[in-house]
Write a structure and sequence with these properties.
The chain is mainly alpha-helical and 301 residues long. The protein has a domain at 24-174: UbiA prenyltransferase (Tetracycline Repressor, domain 2, Orthogonal Bundle), CATH 1.10.357.140. It has helices at 2-16, 27-34, 40-68, 70-74, 81-84, 88-91, 96-118, 123-137, 151-170, 176-199, 201-206, 212-215, 218-241, 249-252, 254-269, 273-299. Helix 2 packs parallel to helix 16 (273-299) and helix 10 packs antiparallel against helix 16. It starts with a helix and ends with a helix. It is an enzyme of class 2 (transferase).
């Protein structure tokens, strides 16, 4: 019985840490290919720290959502059991105190790994690591960045920062292609998140969480999403046209662009934001695979 309870508790902590959502962690293999396969040990340690930092951030987000009632509104009793199980505070498997202790432990351990690695890196890398760490743990806690109109900036900025830090820890140097790929990576979580925010707008508005979906009119929110999607495509085209990447860079990203267009049609054109949100995950993963392929084929040389 004790073993079963322990396993159940461990499973609840894994769901609190959202270990099944690994899209931010794709920054590590992308950075590895950008630096030519060097620094494997460094990037693995950076990955351990990243998992811990992200776990702290999402756990604190769950605590805040549980306390202010937004999670109860967005994950109500009519939600599918599998979806509701992603919120172990709502299901009563964990308490707020347990979640806070878990988040604090993860933040301290992950932050220590990051900053120790950063001591041997250029100053800009250390500073960026510190910014990513402090902003992530205050996403819904402390400064409550996501509640004060900064959610969209954080979603893109954190992903971009992970790629830049990964490269900085190994080489300390940034190239135009590294920056372009980092921004494309950062746009992935953002173009998933804006559809989630659209679906959760009513619950977020009720607790004062100021996302674009809450602050803008429905038409304004659709225009915002459309603009972000077009900006991503434009970045791919300009990177190829200006010689930032190889001449075939845009061709390599065509599958990712196609999924993004399908997502835009589904979410903005047809209004099916839940399906569009799923397509956002696919678009991000296809983008990362395409960028890794570009780098392995010599595009980052």
């Amino acid at each position: 019985m004790t073993t079963a309870l322990d396993r159940a508790t461990l499973g609840a902590y894994a769901r609190l840490a959202k270990l099944d959502v690994w899209d931010y962690y794709l920054a590590l293999p992308l950075a590895w290919t950008l630096v030519g396969g060097r620094g494997t040990g460094t990037l693995l340690l950076f990955g351990v720290g990243t998992v811990l930092v992200v776990a702290a951030s999402v756990a604190l987000d769950d605590v805040t959502g549980h306390r202010d009632g937004s999670d109860a509104a967005n994950y109500g009793p009519d939600a599918p059991a599998r979806r509701l199980a992603r919120k172990p505070l709502l299901t009563g498997e964990l308490t707020d105190a347990q979640a806070i202790r878990f988040a604090c432990g993860c933040a301290l351990a992950g932050g220590a790994v990051w900053l120790l690695l950063g001591l041997a890196a250029p100053l800009w890398t250390f500073v960026l690591l510190l910014v990513c760490l402090l902003s992530s743990v205050q996403y819904s806690w402390g400064l409550r960045i996501s509640y004060r109109g900064g959610q969209e900036v954080f979603l893109a900025g954190f992903g971009t920062g992970l790629v830049l830090c990964g490269v900085g820890l190994v080489t300390g140097e940034l190239t135009p292609l590294v920056v372009v790929e980092a921004v494309l990576f950062g746009l992935g979580p953002l173009l998933f998140g804006v559809y989630s925010n659209t679906a959760d707008a009513a619950g977020d508005a009720a607790v004062g969480r100021r996302t674009v979906a809450v602050l803008a009119s429905p038409a304004g929110n659709r225009a915002f999403i459309t603009g972000l999607s077009l900006a991503e495509v434009a970045l791919v085209v300009f990177a190829a046209g200006l010689g930032v990447g190889p001449w075939w860079f845009a061709l390599a990203l065509l599958p990712a662009v196609a999924v993004r267009v399908a997502q835009l049609r589904r979410g903005v054109g047809l209004g099916d934001v839940l399906r569009a949100r799923k397509l956002g995950l696919l678009a991000h993963r296809v983008t990362v695979v395409s960028l890794i392929a570009v780098n392995l084929l010599g595009g980052a040389a």
